[in-house]
């Protein structure tokens, strides 16, 4: 008897979940609370992907790029390490500590490297240090079969897997990390199969994205961003958002607020009703960066060094609430995911569609 | 009276417990509610008090029961609700009263995007939504019947967002404000509320202000606009231009 359920025989009512916690004072807190937050929204995901990003978690290596790498085979590991040794100074490497969790199976080899580009290689390349790292990440991810760098920033790290997010958090022993910011994602893949690399967050350098939604403009965005040297290899829409942020923020130099006006641009009709300076600003951004407009439903959290940003699509087709208690800021798909860790908030509100909510570390924040 | 402690209870267990209790109890209280979905879905003949933060689709298909929430509610509250009353002593998320066809939803604070979209009415089934604060964009989009009242009490922001009443072809939206939203779509016509409009609103606002202990006179004695479908310009465009 075959009792395997196939598509169409069962409907799983769910939609991705995201959550983020940020300490403006830079006070480091354990990853335990982000697990509790995302766990409340268990039924928004279906066990095909969960993940976390933590910022400020590697203070002892804060000047080095932390590469988190999945390997399918020992050969992939050998090939990748050979590449890393040729291009980088590796000052520390280890397996990422995990715990056996019965819900998490088929894990790849998961390794972590703290690296800096070799000075000779870097000057030879005539690239900036960050561009050198980005090029190396793409090179490994496209050319070395079975090796995949899923985290490449400084003093931050991504932890992700196939499974429900709370199980993924326990698998990676996230409660043993302390940072000033954590984000989380529970996945309900709609178009592509769930696999370890396809879980959120998607990260490049210090940028990490968790995303609830589905981008209608994916292919237009992909074709545009690939012209600038990015390679979309994962067939999943969130990847392209990460590259758009890296491109517009690091390379073009737009502010995060301007990027929000590009990717979640108001309708022309709405722009037409604005006062002149604001209207001209929006007209410029929409015309200049038309290919980076993201359409379709999304709510995203963008983690970056020293800050966190929440953004909804311009129609606000996905939910998002933001709350605050003292120096702590909370952003999540559902209010319950915030109340479970902080019942007594100073305030809570829903940002408008296309309205970026950006929090950064206070000027006098503790050293991170 | 039955009290249910919902602390860390899965939504299915909670809803089974509520339905079982509703067979014999007139009053049910849920404590420590935290994100459980579908509470009181399809329920009639019971009053449920909720302490905490109920999850999405609270009171979906509600069929006569009363729900009182002492806190905020999330998305899709009263989805396709048929009868009954949902009272929220905080604010509401997106898609409040989506496709509602009867009953009343009273919110003390604000509501998110797409409040009352596709509401409809038939004979004596006239759904009502009242917000004490403001509403997000797409209020009453595709509205086909019923009454929405936005009071804008204690708020400095515009009391509605963009695209109010886009595709509206029935029903009425009352806005308690001196300034009409500047970006109303062509399918909507606006006029100052007249005596018969306010007579219609009176009974609703009387109940609303009693529940939230507000001054009915102060709430009534302000300028209201009434938005209705524009008979001269019926449903010209499918959607807002991109």
Structural write-up:
The complex is a heterodimer of chains A (368) and B (242). With 368 residues, chain A is α+β, with helices and mostly antiparallel strands. Chain A has two domains: 17-57 and 155-360, Glutamine Phosphoribosylpyrophosphate, subunit 1, domain 1 (4-Layer Sandwich), CATH 3.60.20; 60-154, ACT domain (Alpha-Beta Plaits, 2-Layer Sandwich), CATH 3.30.70. Chain A contains eleven helices and 18 strands. Chain A has helices at 32-40, 74-87, 119-125, 129-143, 165-171, 218-226, 237-252, 256-263, 268-272, 276-288, 335-339; strands spanning 17-23, 29-30, 50-55, 65-71, 88-95, 109-117, 147-151, 156-161, 178-179, 181-186, 202-204, 207-213, 298-304, 307-312, 321-325, 328-332, 347-349, 357-360. In chain A, strand 11 (202-204) and strand 12 (207-213) form a beta hairpin. In chain A, helix 1 (32-40) runs antiparallel to helix 5 and helix 6 crosses helix 7 (237-252). The radius of gyration of chain A is 20 Å and the shape is globular. Chain B is of the alpha/beta class and 242 residues long. Chain B has a domain at 91-229: Pectate Lyase C-like (3 Solenoid), CATH 2.160.20.60. Chain B is 14% helix and 27% strand. Chain B contains three helices and eleven strands. Chain B has helices at 11-22, 195-211, 216-220; strands at 2-5, 27-34, 47-53, 63-70, 83-88, 104-107, 128-131, 144-150, 170-176, 188-192, 224-229. In chain B, strands 1-2-3-4-5-6-7-8-9-11-10 form an eleven-stranded mixed β-sheet, sandwiched between helices. The N and C termini of chain B lie far apart (53 Å).
């Amino acid at each position: 008897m075959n009792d395997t359920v196939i598509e169409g025989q069962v409907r799983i009512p769910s939609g991705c979940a995201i959550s983020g916690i940020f300490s403006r004072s830079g006070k480091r807190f354990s990853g335990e609370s982000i697990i509790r937050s995302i766990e409340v929204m268990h039924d928004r995901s279906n066990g095909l992907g969960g993940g976390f990003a933590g910022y400020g978690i590697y203070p002892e290596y804060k000047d080095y790029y932390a590469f988190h790498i999945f390997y399918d085979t020992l050969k992939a590991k050998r090939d990748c390490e050979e590449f890393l040794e040729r291009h980088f100074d590796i000052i520390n490497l280890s397996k990422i500590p995990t715990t056996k969790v019965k819900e998490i199976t088929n894990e790849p080899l998961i390794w972590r490297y703290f690296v800096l580009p070799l000075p000779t290689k870097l000057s030879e390349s005539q690239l900036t240090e960050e561009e050198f790292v980005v090029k190396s990440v793409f090179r490994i991810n496209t050319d070395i079969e079975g090796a995949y760098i899923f985290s490449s920033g400084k003093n931050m790290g991504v932890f992700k897997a196939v499974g429900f997010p709370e199980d993924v958090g326990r698998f990676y022993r996230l409660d043993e990390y302390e940072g000033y910011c954590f984000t989380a994602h529970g996945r309900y893949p709609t178009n592509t199969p769930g696999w370890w690399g396809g879980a959120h967050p998607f990260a490049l350098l210090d940028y990490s994205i968790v995303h609830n939604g589905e981008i209608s403009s994916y292919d237009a965005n992909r074709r545009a961003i690939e012209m600038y040297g990015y390679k979309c290899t994962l067939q999943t829409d969130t990847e392209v958002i990460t590259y758009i942020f890296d491109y517009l923020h690091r390379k073009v130099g737009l502010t995060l607020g301007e990027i929000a006006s590009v990717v979640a641009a108001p309708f022309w009709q709405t722009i037409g009703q604005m006062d002149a300076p604001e209207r001209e600003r929006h007209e410029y951004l929409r015309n200049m960066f038309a290919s980076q407009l993201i359409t379709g439903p999304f709510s995203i959290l963008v983690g970056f060094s020293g800050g966190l940003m929440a953004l909804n699509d311009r129609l606000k087709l996905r939910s998002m609430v933001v709350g605050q208690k003292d120096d702590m800021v909370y952003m999540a798909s559902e209010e319950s995911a915030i109340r479970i860790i902080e019942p007594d908030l100073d305030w809570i509100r829903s940002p408008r569609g296309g309205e970026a909510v950006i929090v950064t570390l206070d000027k006098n924040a503790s050293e991170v | 009276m039955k009290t249910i402690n919902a602390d860390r209870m899965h939504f299915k267990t909670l809803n089974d417990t509520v339905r079982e209790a509703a067979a014999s109890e007139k009053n049910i209280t849920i404590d420590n509610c935290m994100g459980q979905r579908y509470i009181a879905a399809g329920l009639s003949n019971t009053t449920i008090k909720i302490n905490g933060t109920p999850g999405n689709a609270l009171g979906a298909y509600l069929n006569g029961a009363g729900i009182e929430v002492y806190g905020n509610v999330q998305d899709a509250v009263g989805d396709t609700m048929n009868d009954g009353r949902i009272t929220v002593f905080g604010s509401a998320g997106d898609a409040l009263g989506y496709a509602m066809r009867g009953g009343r939803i009273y919110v003390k604070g604000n509501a998110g995007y797409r409040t009352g979209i596709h509401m409809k009415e038939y004979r004596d089934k006239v759904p009502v939504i009242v917000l004490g604060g403001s509403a997000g964009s797409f209020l009453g989009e595709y509205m086909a019947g019923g009454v929405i009242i936005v009071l804008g009490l204690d708020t400095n922001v515009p009391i509605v967002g963009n695209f109010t009443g886009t595709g509206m072809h029935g029903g009425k939206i009352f806005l308690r404000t001196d300034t009409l939203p500047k970006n109303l779509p062509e399918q909507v016509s606006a006029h100052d509320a007249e005596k018969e409009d306010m007579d219609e609103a009176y009974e609703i606002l009387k109940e609303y202000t009693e529940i939230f202990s507000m001054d009915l006179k102060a709430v009534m004695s302000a300028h209201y606009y009434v938005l209705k479908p524009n008979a001269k310009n019926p449903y010209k465009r499918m959607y807002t231009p991109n």
